[in-house]
Amino acid sequence: MVAIGVTGKGQKVGQSARPRMRLLAGAISCSVLAAGPAQSAQCIRGINLAGAEFGSLGQAYGEGYTYPSEKTVSYFRDKGFGGVRLPFLWERLQPKLYDKFDAAEMRRLRATVKDIRSAGMQVIVDPHNYARYKDQLIGSDAVPQSAFSDFWRRLAAMFANQEGVIFGLMNEPHGISAEDWLSAANGAIAAIRQTGANNLVLVPGTSWTGAHSWSGGDYGTPNSEVMAGVTDPAGNYAYEVHQYMDADFSGKNDECSRAADAVKAIGTMGDWLASHGRHGFLGEFAVPTAPGCQQALTDMVSAVESRPDVWIGWSYWAAGDWWKPTEPLNIQPTESGDRPQMQTLQRYFADHQSCGG
């Protein structure tokens, strides 16, 4: 992957200079879904707790990157979130392809997952690499698809069949055809299942896995035509999409001018899921603090929770101990209290005690 750095603590820069915050939505148990993919999933309301994907390779822990603190985890649990999407870097965990994991980084990841689970929250482990390893695309000569499968075989063995631990296959693949990404994803899923792990797997598409671009053709054959070919021996997976509401759907602009289009895209994605008998998860979305964007935030969550037949939940982007107070999408609390977006979500939690309510 392109090296991800921070300009100051928290402002992420990397992949395509798309600095933005991501918060993982919590997972709260609701109704069990009908048989089929993701049949064991609970209704997830989560928050992305960023930090472990920050910094450049070689920077020390606590200087270039960090994992979420127990205080931060407890804050979001107490607010009503039931899950955490936990981004981290593949290269830090596995410094050399096909080789064992770094012992210190493995301990940090295990400890953080344990802390989140001890707080009663589900956790999505998220290699935040955009289908890259050290800036080289999965499927290239430098990073064969078999290396991605090897990575997931090792990671799955760490958390195999642990209750409340979900496998997010890869954050926002891009620059790779849907056909090549499907092949890599199916290889990784097969490797996961070979370990005996039956954990829920979240499978993204290519083109940053945008809901708005799922059926578009500007990146080659659309995800909608290819990604129905996901193969999972355990039949326990869901599609992960992301959807921002700014002018270019990137999440890097301090506005929500295309909120209506974004919410419509979630409806269209839901229709695709229903037509294929599949389930989906909204892994990233966010709005800035402007009052006019708070209704858009409610509309987005409602679009997901009104269709529990196809959506297993959502996770907001983002929070984490190192986000700056000036970053517009961030909902890490400040000294003065909760941010407007948190206040909006809190009202939603109060009005909708269970997903689909």
Description:
The chain is an alpha/beta fold. It is built from nine helices and twelve strands. The chain has an eight-stranded parallel barrel with strand order 3-4-5-8-9-10-11-12, surrounded by four helices. A two-stranded antiparallel ribbon has the order 1-2. The longest helix has 18 residues, at 259-276. 53% of the residues are buried. Residues 1-36 have low confidence and may be disordered.
List the helices and strands and how they pair.
Blueprint: E1 5-6, E2 12-13, E3 44-49, H1 70-79, E4 83-88, H2 90-93, H3 103-118, E5 122-127, E6 132-133, E7 136-137, H4 145-159, E8 165-168, H5 178-194, E9 201-204, H6 223-226, E10 237-242, H7 259-276, E11 280-284, H8 291-305, E12 311-319, H9 340-351
Parallel strand pairs: 3-4, 3-12, 4-5, 5-8, 8-9, 9-10, 10-11, 11-12
Antiparallel strand pairs: 1-2, 6-7
Whole-number count of domains: 1
Percent of residues in β-strands: 15-25%
Derived structural class: alpha/beta
Q: Kindly report the spatial arrangement of strands forming the biggest sheet.
A: 3-4-5-8-9-10-11-12
**Secondary structure: number of strands:** 12
Here the CATH topology equals TIM Barrel
